[in-house]
Amino acid sequence: MEVLKRGLVLLMVLLKRGLVLLMVFMVFQRGEGQLFENFYRGTCPNLEMIVKQVVSTKFSQTFVTIPATLRLFFHDCFVEGCDASVMIASPNGDAEKDAQDNLSLAGDGFDTVIKAKQAVEIQCPGIVSCADILALAARDVVVLAGGPSWEVELGRRDGLVSQASKVAGNLPDPEFNLVQLNTIFARNNLTQFDMIALSGAHTLGFSHCNRFSNRLYSFSSSSVVDPSLDPNYAQQLMQACPQNVDSSIAINMDPETPRTFDNVYYQNLVSGKGLFTSDEVLFSDPASQPTVSDFASNPGNFNGAFITAMRKLGRVGVKTGNEGEIRIDCTKFNS
After folding, report:
1. Are 231 and 94 in contact (CB under 8 A)?
2. Rounded Cα–Cα distance for residues 244 and 225 (Å)
3. Binding positions
4. What is the pLDDT of residues 247-278, one digit of tens each?
5. Distance of alpha carbon 282 from alpha carbon 289, whole angstroms
6. Does the reported pTM lie above 0.85?
7. Can you tell me the distance from the alpha carbon of 235 to that of 164, in angstroms, rounded to the nearest whole number?
8. Binding site residues for Ca(2+), as ranges?
């Protein structure tokens, strides 16, 4: 009898340990926010292939697909979390996308996600969230531009709130200093290292002249032109963006390799060719300069940091389980 009791106690201990190990394993598999890779393995096994095909087709039509989709993901995650709330179109013009800070989001990013969702709905109706499709598309455009690939954690639900009033103060400003950048990224559980890595996305895409014209024509009382700008680069910017230029005019953020995802962005910062104050401060501030110098010299280090930061970004404020919904149309709530 005593032997049987001991055997039962030992069995219970082993079962408890096994359960703990299983729970730990599940936590590591799923990551923060209950997201995990292969979330749709049983319900939509061809998901990644479908999205990749749509993104590739869209890219073949216009390069803008790449920076537009990547920027859309960032703007979505920093307001209400990664829940596709930025996709909502309001007849009253008061949704997230209508906020002043989001008016410059290129339509090709929205179009990419909408078309991918339509293609997914044909094979897997009502299964995959717009938020997950945006996360996959953001990865796919980086790869198309020559950047690294990574496994995307999935399982997000689409948000039920999209208000323009919630955007102000939640996105980085092009005039931010390092402390301001760190503060707004820290709110989203992203470190200074993550922030510098994610800033590398500025190796792609373009910006409108009014976002940096103060650096050329009215920087300070002692210097009209921002002295941290390389003089030749400043002249190039002035030629492309004369005073009172049409607000629709835009120029490449990376003057060297604007269509390639690489570490040249950081090399530009070292050379005084950062377009925004918030770019150049990453090199001019002693606290962040070593990381910029490392990324400028070591593309592998940058790629690794970018992958880690993008996976962390993708966990920000996610809705999972019974939260939110799976939108049928990415541009409007189901009800």
Report:
1. no
2. 16
3. 76, 79, 81, 83, 85, 96, 172, 202-203, 254, 257, 262
4. 788 999 999 999 999 999 999 999 999 999 99
5. 6
6. yes
7. 37
8. 76, 79, 81, 83, 85, 96, 203, 254, 257, 262
